[in-house]
Design brief:
The strands form 6 sheets. The protein has an 8-stranded antiparallel beta sheet with strand order 13-15-14-17-16-11-12-19. Among the domains are: about 170 residues, no CATH class; about 120 residues, no CATH class. The termini are far apart. A hairpin with a 2-residue loop joins strand 1 and strand 2. The protein is built from 30 helices and 19 strands. By secondary structure, it is an alpha+beta fold.
């Protein structure tokens, strides 16, 4: 009631990135977080992967397991953690270890969690410890000792001292696959046990039906199943042997090629040979010869001797009598005899358990093994609540360390705009072209990411990063300082991840946007210089090509005249009129240039001295102003949201990257304060005075034109008057 009387919670906001962000630094802020309008949250959803925060923590918060964390899941995590702690301010303080004294044992859930925390420390032989770490609460293989019930519903053979029951559990695992319990031991769940006994009963029922047709379906009685499994394991290999022998009979030339070549034995001779080696198993059962029977005693491939001996003893002898070899007709007779059995086996259930045979399955089903296993599973499930409490210890320990960090990258973006650290989406720092870029994000799909990230208005460099022993990594770096003159696809840099590991980074894609006002100021002049350079190169290349073509044509023409005996054509007479016309055109051009210069000089000398700087500034603004204005407008639009949205975030605001903050995100190389610098460079290019000569020539032309137009007379006359000697009067 007192809280209601006090009125609604008084939120505090701070302004960073051009928008208001809520301040979360008090316990009461966390208690009232559910009351904060979601429209005021900086983020509404973020992925659980690709972030610089413990992924296990994010998976615990992501209760629906869809790979994204949303506002209700954040609120549920904060509410649960507050209910388990005496003082919610512990979430703000954080830490890798959770003090036992911080757990609120005044509630039943808190009391169970505290008891589980103490049990964990006892199992780890630290009964006197006053805090439990994340590592201690996460290692279930140490917390839950093998051979003990742990509440996960999986029973291993070590949970019973009955040898027969252990054998049954092992047989279930062999045929239906093992599951790993909390202690790390293999075992079986209720589903696996039920499936085993269901198939066992189905097989025994079909076996009874087969007994009704024993003369055809069970040619060897109760031994038919084992004999049939053995026959199936040999079917393909024996068929391969007889096919080879038939091909050798068809064409005697094939026999040598159907047997292993000598090179195979040469390779085996250099190895340590085992009868079970794949290379030996792949060899034919015996030497291939035209229509040769299959030997059953001697001359066999060592890898198949044991199986063929059992086949002879269990199948051949009972059906055909004592034999030392098997012809193809005898082999086909055996297949025909087992044909009804094979059809029965394919039509009936129990394929996973058939290899155990009817006698073993009958003993298992009638021996009460199913009830015994069900009781073990029931006993283990009885500890589920205790096990969940132990899992809750890990959950609280992780929330204690990571939840407040997540809030400052979700409810607000404080960690991003706080230059003393990095946000959870910042993957590291890229060093490239004399600068360090802190705005680096991991990227899974570069093409998809760049499509949306383009709208961030930020100059982006996508880099592939490689490190020995690690999977290739792709990042995108926002470049917010310096210029782009030397940035190009293929440039190499070094990327340092958040663990301090260095990666070789190569630029693979650039998304160009303005970087700074300074770059925009010089951009027109650089473009003009680049255009002039390109035009000069084109002109020089065209003139060079024309000279080569004329020279080639002249040489070819001279060669033709020599071959044909023609005399060289007489030189064309000097055309004085054409020559005079050229000089007249040059004179007109010079006159036009002089007139233009005269007009410019006249305009300048009509100005007062204080107007000259204004003219210079005006010229600069006329040239650089549009570029600077356009860059300023675009730089004001730089936005973090598209970069994060392209990675699966749902940013709820326009997180601006203004000019001052952009400067902080990218560091440009600069000499340390107080450094000494020597300008003596022994390899510097020699300076030639041609620039000075050009300047002096231009100055002389300007002065001459000004004098010619009479603009210097009024300025020089007072000086001459002072210098003129006095008259004799």
């Amino acid at each position: 009631m007192a809280e209601a009387a006090a009125g609604p919670h008084r939120w505090r906001f701070f302004r960073l990135g051009g928008f208001d962000q809520v301040r979360l630094d008090r316990a009461e802020d966390l208690e009232h977080l559910a009351e904060l309008d979601p429209k005021l949250w900086s983020v509404l959803s973020c992925p659980t992967s690709g972030l610089e925060i413990d992924r296990r923590t994010l998976e615990l918060i992501d209760t629906d397991g869809d790979g994204h964390i949303r506002v209700p899941e954040i609120l549920a995590a904060v509410s649960w953690a507050r209910g388990m702690l005496k003082d919610p301010a512990r979430l703000i303080e954080g830490g890798d270890s959770l003090p036992l004294a911080a757990i609120d044992d005044s509630t039943p859930d808190g009391a169970r969690l505290l008891a589980s925390a103490r049990q964990i420390l006892t199992n780890l032989r630290k009964p006197d410890a006053d805090a439990v770490s994340i590592a201690e609460s996460s290692d279930k293989s140490k917390i839950f000792s093998p051979g003990c019930f742990n509440g996960d519903g999986i029973v291993s053979p070590s949970l019973t001292e009955d040898e027969d029951l252990r054998a049954v559990i092992t047989e279930i695992m062999e045929r239906f696959g093992a599951e790993t319990d909390r202690s790390g031991e293999p075992g079986v769940s209720q589903a696996k046990a039920d499936a085993f006994f269901e198939e066992a009963r189905a097989f025994l029922a079909s076996w009874e039906r087969a007994h009704a047709q024993a003369d055809t379906v069970l040619p060897l009685g109760d031994g038919t199943v084992a004999a049939g499994e053995l026959l199936e394991s040999l079917r393909a290999k024996v068929a391969d042997y007889f096919t080879r022998c038939r091909l050798a009979a068809f064409d005697p030339r094939a026999a040598a090629r159907l047997n292993p070549p000598e090179e195979v034995y040469g390779t085996l001779s250099s190895l340590e040979i085992s009868a079970a080696a794949d290379a030996v198993v792949a060899l034919p059962l015996a030497e291939v010869a035209p229509d040769r029977p299959l030997p059953l005693v001697e001359g066999l491939n060592p890898a198949w001797v044991g199986r063929l001996e059992r086949f002879r003893h269990d199948v051949v002898v009972p059906l055909l009598g004592e034999r030392t070899e098997l012809g193809q007709q005898d082999w086909q007779r055996i297949l025909d005899v087992f044909g009804p059995f094979r059809a029965w086996r394919d039509e009936n259930a129990g394929e996973h358990v058939a290899s155990l045979g009817p006698d073993r399955l009958r003993a298992i089903v009638e021996g009460g093994a199913q009830d015994a296993i069900n009781k073990l599973i029931e006993r283990d499930n009885a500890l589920e609540a205790h096990a969940e409490s132990i899992d809750a210890v890990e959950r609280l320990a992780r929330y204690h360390r990571d939840l407040f960090l997540l809030l400052n990258n979700f409810v607000s973006l404080r960690d991003f705009y706080n230059t003393h650290g990095k946000a959870i989406f910042q993957a590291g720092t890229l060093y490239l072209d004399g600068r360090s870029c802190d705005l680096c994000l991991r990227v899974d799909d570069m093409a998809r990411h760049s499509t949306l990230a383009h709208f961030s208005g930020t100059y982006l460099a996508y880099c592939e990063c490689e490190r020995k022993g690690e999977e290739k990594l792709t990042i995108v770096a926002g470049i917010t300082g310096g210029d782009s003159d030397n940035l190009m696809v293929g440039r190499n840099g070094v990327f340092y991840d958040r663990q301090g590991r260095d990666w070789d980074a190569t630029v693979v894609k650039l998304v160009e946007h303005p970087i700074s006002i300074r770059q925009a100021f010089w951009s027109p002049y650089k473009r003009v210089a680049r255009l002039m350079q390109e035009q000069i190169q084109k002109f020089a290349a065209s003139r060079d090509q024309a000279v080569e073509e004329r020279a080639a044509a002249g040489i070819a023409g001279a060669a033709e005249r020599v071959e044909s005996g023609q005399k060289p054509a007489p030189a064309a007479p000097f055309d004085i009129a054409k020559f005079a016309g050229i000089f007249a055109a040059i004179g007109l051009a010079i006159g036009a240039i002089g007139t233009a210069l005269a007009a410019m000089v006249a305009g300048l000398f009509n100005l007062a001295w204080w107007q000259f700087p204004l003219v210079a500034v005006g010229v600069l603004l006329a040239v650089s102003g549009p570029s600077m204005l356009l860059a300023w407008l675009k730089l004001r639009q730089r936005n973090l949201a598209p970069l994060l949205d392209a990675n699966g975030w749902a940013v709820n605001t326009r997180a601006r990257i203004n000019l001052p903050f952009g400067t902080a995100l990218t560091g440009v190389a600069a000499l340390p304060s107080g450094s000494q610098r020597s300008l003596d460079d022994p390899y510097a290019e020699k300076k030639r005075p041609w620039k000075t000569y050009l300047f002096l020539l231009a100055l002389v032309i300007v002065v001459a034109v000004a004098w010619w137009q009479g603009y210097l007379g009024p300025m020089v006359e007072p000086v001459l008057e002072v210098l003129r000697p006095p008259s004799g009067d």
